[in-house]
């Protein structure tokens, strides 16, 4: 066996894992391993390169392109003249690729205690890994290892899928040109965000789902409303099974089985957005005695330690919440626990919010009504329409609402779900109230709410709760 270089710490993955290293690690000998994410060798992980950040840069552009739709109901007639896709795409990646590149340069060239290995890492023994670098395989080991290796898109087993060209979220944002018609497979948040992005930019979108609703993990009221609105914007085909896919001209033809029998749909671009899986398999975690759950997530305790001595995990590879703010929180927990092993801290997953930046937008925190029922929790609800507050009149919004769940005896919030303009921003005071245990009445009446601003939606929903 050749030389094995030994480190104090190995970090695998440069998404949230990259943020662990600050000046407090200056005297640690550290290896960082990154294989590159998406369609090109990149640094900085999913969120920066192929996830949250580029999608939201495209979403904002799509919202602007959608102005004629919202103008229409206000008596303002606008026309979308042109969408310069190459310019839109290059603005987004011109910024992102530069940030990714300078992040890499900083770690590689300006951190004398850090060695960057570019390649795929795989365990060969406990806390020992082989890395496939351009210069050949190299073996490294360490006292401590942090697994921050994230996840990747899952490709469903549809007969013929290997013979057609398809995209995932990793590649679709870098399309050469916009297609006339895009087929999106999947009705989760990634599918819903891309459907909005591409349809607002003028692409005809067909969205295909296996269940009867879009965003079916949301509170049922929210998911039903979103499904209704999705069907108005896109060619929505639910309760469908894909039975095959084949090439058709320069595009694809997808065969489906659905409520009305067999059908097919043709489009120029196929976007597969049917879910993601953790990258634990790529790491060969079994070789290191690291336990994983059935879904491939690495098992961690409340301090982010895995079942193997000296090995921590964080973010999408181990968390049930595949969200950047959760990965970042867990990264700070791991960072603390590496530095202060004698006083470990725990992750806080009590009130994890999430958002969907589609049309309309959605944000949610805490229990859905179906979860409250399943858990047998005593609860009351209140729903406030955007249409019932002054700013909603200003926007002529007729479909958005906030729905709250609360404990009727204490007034403590159990869940909050908003569908409508700026939902991810409007929800923040509710997240704060849940985290800090502020009850609905004190929250509603214990502070001023700027009139007539959008948070009046929250104020009125709170006042509407039929508490004991
Ligand atoms: C299209 C899309 C949109 C999203 N939008 C949002 C959003 O709006 N808000 C939000 O909160 N979250 C969003 N997410 C989720 C968010 O991107 C992830 O939760 C977050 O990036 C997870 O961070 P991480 O550090 O766990 O993993 P990652 O950022 O995925 O980092 C893992 C890194 O490890 C590397 N790696 C993996 N295996 C190996 C190996 N064996 N050897 C070497 N390197 C390896 C990978 O190349 C990657 O760079 C989105 C995700 C997608 C795909």
Automatic annotation (TrEMBL):
Record's keyword annotation contains NAD: yes
Show the active-site residues: 451
* GO function terms (MF aspect): nucleotide binding; oxidoreductase activity, acting on a sulfur group of donors, NAD(P) as acceptor
| Cofactor or coenzyme needed | FAD
Where does the source fall among the domains of life? Bacteria
Domain Pyridine nucleotide-disulphide oxidoreductase dimerisation, by residue range, is 352-461
Q: How is its cofactor bound, per UniProt?
A: Binds 1 FAD per subunit.
Heme keyword on record: no
**Where, by residue number, does FAD bind?**
56, 316
Q: InterPro entries, alphabetically?
A: FAD/NAD-bd_sf, FAD/NAD-binding_dom, FAD/NAD-linked_Rdtase_dimer_sf, Mycothione_reductase, Pyr_nuc-diS_OxRdtase, Pyr_nucl-diS_OxRdtase_dimer, Pyr_OxRdtase_I_AS
Q: Which Gene3D superfamilies match?
A: 3.30.390.30, FAD/NAD(P)-binding domain (3.50.50.60)
At which positions is NAD(+) bound?
A: 186-193, 275
Question: What PROSITE patterns is this protein classified in?
Answer: PYRIDINE_REDOX_1
Q: Where is the FAD/NAD(P)-binding domain?
A: 7-327
**Annotated keywords:** Disulfide bond, FAD, Flavoprotein, NAD, NADP, Nucleotide-binding, Oxidoreductase, Redox-active center
Q: Which cysteines are joined by disulfide bonds?
A: 47-52
Can you tell me which family this protein belongs to?
Answer: Belongs to the class-I pyridine nucleotide-disulfide oxidoreductase family.
Q: What is this protein called?
A: Mycothione reductase
Give the taxonomic lineage as stored in the record. Bacteria, Bacillati, Actinomycetota, Actinomycetes, Actinopolysporales
